[in-house]
Amino acid sequence: MTTHDAVVEALADPRIQKDKRHWRAFAAGEIPPDWPLISWIVNDNMLAKDGEDHTRLRRLVSKAFTPRRVERLRPAVVDIVERLLDDVEREAAVSEDGVVDLKRSFAEPLPLTVIGDLFGLSEEDRPRMHRLVNAFFDQGVAPEEAFAIFGELWELLTGLVETKRAVPGDDLTTALITARDEDDALTENELIWNLVLFISAGHETTMNLIVNAVSMLDSHRDQLALVREGGISWDRAIEETLRLAGPAAYLPMRYTAEDMELAGIHLPKGEPLLLGYTSAGKDPERYGPTAGEFDVTREDTSHLSFSRGRHFCLGAGLARLEAREALPRLFERFPGLRVAPSAGAPAPMTSFIVDGLETLPVRPRP
C-alpha cells in the first residue's frame, strides 16, 4: 500500500494485524530461516503484537519511556551537538579540500551517543552497537551474515541487561527491567526484543532524519534562509522533511487476518502487507500537485513517518528533540555549509526499510 489514504486505512483496520501467526506462508513453514528479512518477522517486541498483548507491552514500556525522561535529555543533547560541531570544525580544518562526511562526523554519532546514554551502554560497546545496527537495516547483507549480525546484537544486549541487573543505573535499560504493572513485568525475551526495537530504531531513524533534512535544505537555499531568519519555524522544516523524506520507508510486516477489501483491492486472508510511509507522504491526492517537492511553507506537513494509532512510535519525541537541537545549531555554526560537489549525488542506503544516504560530504566553510 503506497497511497496516503490506503496506508491510513490499513493502520486503522483491525483485520490487519502485526502478529506473524496470521501469515499463512510463515505458519506453513514456507519461509526459510535464512530469509533476509527473517529477523524482522520473528521479533517479539511490541511492534509485532496486537490486541491485549500489544496493550500490555506498550503499557509496561511506557512506564519507562516517559516524556519527562526524554525531556531531561535536552541539556545533554545540546552538549553532544556542540561537541560534535567542534569535531566537524577541526576535521574540516585539516582536510585538504575542507570536505567532511557530515553523516559520519555528526548525524551518526549524535543519536548513537544519546541512545547510549539513555540505555546506559558502555563507551566501549557503542562502536560495536553502531556497526550492528547499521548492518541490521542493510538489505545488501547476505542472509548468513545477517543471521550472525543479529546473533551478535542479541548477545550484546543480553550482556547489557545482565550488567544492569547487577549494577542498576539511572537509565532506560534499568527502568525497563524494573517496569511493573502490579505483578506483571516484561519477560527476559520481551525485554531484549524491546531493547532491539528502541536502540536500533532510535539510532537509525534520527541519523537519517538529520541527513535528509540537511540535504533538502541545502538544495533549497531560499527555504533555508527563510527558516534561519525566523520566517518559518525549524519545527515545520523538520516535519516537511519527515513528510517528503522520512527515514521510515517500509516497516515489515503486517498481515491480513481475514479476507478483506482495502483501497478497492481484494486481499485474501493470510497475506503479508508492506505499507509505504514515504510514498504516502508524496501522494498528490493528499498533498496536491506539489506533493513531490520540498516546501517548508506548505500548509499541510502532516505525515505518517511515526505511524499512527496504536503503533505510533514512542520515540517520536526523542527524534524530534534531537533534530530540533541539531539542525539550527549546525547552520548557525556553519551558515555557508554546502553539500560538496562530487562525481554524482550521494548514493542511497542499500535498504528499503529506511530512507537515507550512504554519505553526506559537505564543505562547512565556503
From TrEMBL:
<dbReference type="InterPro" id="IPR001128">
    <property type="entry name" value="Cyt_P450"/>
</dbReference>
<dbReference type="InterPro" id="IPR002397">
    <property type="entry name" value="Cyt_P450_B"/>
</dbReference>
<keyword id="KW-0349">Heme</keyword>
<dbReference type="InterPro" id="IPR017972">
    <property type="entry name" value="Cyt_P450_CS"/>
</dbReference>
<dbReference type="Pfam" id="PF00067">
    <property type="entry name" value="p450"/>
</dbReference>
<keyword id="KW-0408">Iron</keyword>
<keyword id="KW-0503">Monooxygenase</keyword>
<keyword id="KW-0560">Oxidoreductase</keyword>
<protein>
    <submittedName>
        <fullName>Cytochrome P450</fullName>
    </submittedName>
</protein>
<comment type="similarity">
    <text>Belongs to the cytochrome P450 family.</text>
</comment>
<keyword id="KW-0479">Metal-binding</keyword>
<dbReference type="InterPro" id="IPR036396">
    <property type="entry name" value="Cyt_P450_sf"/>
</dbReference>
